[in-house]
Amino acid sequence: MSDNPYAPSGSSYGDASLDANFDLSQAELIRKSHLNHEANIQSFGCLYTLGGIMGILGAIFYIGIGIFVMAGGVVSEDLQAMVFGADGDPTVAGIITTLVGVVFLAIAVAQLFAGRSMQTLNPSGKTLAIIVAAIGMLQFPCGTMISGYLLYLLVSSKGTMVFSSAYKEVIQATPHIRYRTSIIVWIFLFLLIGVILLGIIAAIFGSR
After folding, report:
1. Above 60 in pLDDT, residue 179?
2. Would you tell me which of 104, 156, 174, 186 could form a disulfide with 59, CB atoms 3.0–4.6 Å apart?
3. Per-residue DSSP letters for 149-187?
4. Residues 6+ apart with CB under 8 A from 201
5. Could you read off the pLDDT of 64-76 as tens digits, one per residue?
6. Does the CA dihedral 202-49-136-186 come out positive or negative?
7. At 83, is the pLDDT very low, low, confident or very high (cuts 50, 70, 90)?
8. What single DSSP character describes residue 123?
9. Are the beta carbons of 165 and 13 closer than 8 angstroms?
10. Would you say 136 and 146 are in contact if contact means Cβ atoms under 8 Å apart?
11. How far is CA 5 from CA 75, 120, 152, 163, 171, in A?
């Protein structure tokens, strides 16, 4: 199927058909029929970007600690228990921690790029976003449900349209159409951020 918005009559995208005489009203029809799908993908992109940034910071922390210990540095007992385990050999654990940090860094960078691709609807990062979402399904049960829904958004017919070059032209033709996020979504987002912050605080105080 061609993704040219000026394609002859009979081609279609989602709920909208494209005629040879492509005009603003037709672009608005296409945009409105895909707007919710577009907004959902971009919302996931924001969460993945945030997760990628936090993952990169955490990975750098682990790599730094691992290298520091391998170089003969001494860490506090609390930090050693939190990172290496109470009875772990610092040198061996430092090597393992560094390697784990490198793996986490690669995953976090991939998640960050996938998130930015979803935010900007960049088709070059769609495959990576699908791979990251598929990996996220291993986090049963919440990750499985959330990542499963994201996979649906990415591989569905509307997801294909949203990432197409034709849809970019539709967006450029309809800058006045914007998705209005409901107050319920904002409340859910703030609650999610609050849960993450509480988890970080609990981990810090729990290690003492």
Report:
1. yes
2. 104
3. HHHHHHHSHHHHHHTSHHHHHHHHH-TT------HHHHH
4. none
5. 888 887 777 666 6
6. positive
7. low
8. G
9. no
10. yes
11. 61, 20, 24, 13, 12
